[in-house]
Every structure is written in C-alpha cells, then in structure tokens.
Amino acid sequence: xxxxxxxxxxxxxxxxxxxxxxxxRMAPGAETRRSVAAxxxxxxxxxxxxxxxxxxxxxxxxxxxxxxxxxxxxxxTKLWNxxxxxxxxxxxxxxxxxxxxxxxxxxxLLHWPVPGLRLESWRALEALYERGEVRAIGVSNFMVHHxxxxxxxxxxxxxxxxxxxxxxxxxxETRAWxxxxxVVVEAYSPLAKAEVLGHESVVRIARxxxxxxxxxxxxxxxxxxxxxxxxxxxxxxxxxxxxxAAVRLSPQAMSELDALEQGxxxxxxxxxxx
Length: 274
Description:
By secondary structure, this protein is an alpha/beta fold. It has one domain (2-191, 225-233): Alpha-Beta Barrel (TIM Barrel). The protein is built from 10 helices and 11 strands. The strands form 2 sheets. It has an 8-stranded parallel beta sheet with strand order 4-5-6-7-8-9-10-11. A 3-stranded antiparallel beta sheet has the order 1-2-3, with no helix packed on it. It is globular, with a radius of gyration of 18 Å. It starts with a strand and ends in a 16-residue tail after the last helix. Residues 1-5 have low confidence and may be disordered.
C-alpha cells in the first residue's frame, strides 16, 4: 500500500503522509496555531483534527499562514456524534470546511460508530466525496463488526480506519481485515499517551536500537504500514517524532515489541461498542 517513502496510497489513489500531527487536546487558540505552525516548519505535511477538538479554525489558520501550497498539506477532520445522520452530517461538514478555511477537506472521517446513525451518516460522506467536497472518506474507532456492516451497505468503501494502535494495543484482527480490504489504518495515540515510554522493555529495546522510546514506538507503527499521528506541542518533541521516519528496526526489535500486547486502551475503547 506504500507508494513512496513517507506516504501511503489510499484505495482511490490519494496519497497520505505517513506521519501526521495529532491535535487532540491542544488548546484552541494560540497553542494550536503555534504548534501546527512549528510542525509545518519542521516538515510535517499532515494535520489531524476533529470537530470535537474545537480547534479546526486554528489548524486552518496555521496552514494558511504557513505559506505552503494548499496541495502540500493533508488535513483530516471528523464528524462528531451529535452531528450524525445524513442531513446533519452534510451541515456539519460545511461548518468544518468554513472553520478550516478550505474548499476541499483531504480526509473526512466518522469519529465513532454511533448505533442507528452510522449508516445514514456514511451516506452523507459518500455524497460529499462524490461531489468533490472531500478527497477521501473513512471511519474512526471501527472494529471488524462495524466495518463488515458498513461495507455490506456502502456504495463507496471506507479508505481509512483510524484507531488507537501501539505495541501494547495492536488490534491485529482489525488491522488484518483492513489490509485485506484495502483500508489504510491510521494509529492515533501511537505513543499510548506517553504511558509506556518508561516501560522497562521499551527503554531497553530503544537503547539497543539507538533511538528514543518515542521513536521506537513510532518506527514500530511505520514498519507495520500504519499512518501514525503523534501529538506534541513541543517543537523538539515534534522533531524527535518526525525523525522516526528514518528509523529501521531490526526483526528482533520488532518481535520483542510485538510481544508487548496487553490490550491497553488509553482512550476510547470501541471493542465493545454495538
């Protein structure tokens, strides 16, 4: 599914940078604008926001202020639960486009598999995609049963599934399903919200690999063909995370990381969502 170093290709041919800046829990206003601007200056070309985060306008302002050509920065946002349903979703996407200051959103996702509404919401995303208002559509927090329900009814199959993935929560079944159906998996919280950076095994493998613990976890995700979305407001940490693109872990390091699976969800856990 990889097209060139640094990017993956979605099922419709759109390319997506493999390392993006997540902005979940970045404070709306100056913090988000400053952090996104710093990341773009460092070389990030992918920013992941959502209506729920309340910082779409600040992401858009930072992208506009960067001086970069619009086509060089990939922007993702998401439909929140209160806006699910076909007509409501269409209106919500228009609000997001206005907030971001974008004519076209690069990737628009259903943020959560809301029972009773997700299929209707997907019809709206299909319409947005077919009208050219978004370049790609996908889902977030969908497990295999959600994906199978969706794909059985969809005119346009999801191109992306964004879920929490790191060595301590690998979602192997969902990732295998996505690989078999041409769905790119994006890993949010790929550093497990820093909860495991001091874990004895992570520290040991990182030291043996000559990288930082954060770079180790991100490199593991990249070698699993994931798009990774680390969040940081610190330019030094942002640069450290971006440098993971150049890391190549040994088979032994990958195997040891694979053995760390614990089912550790640090955020929303959709495994039991109906």
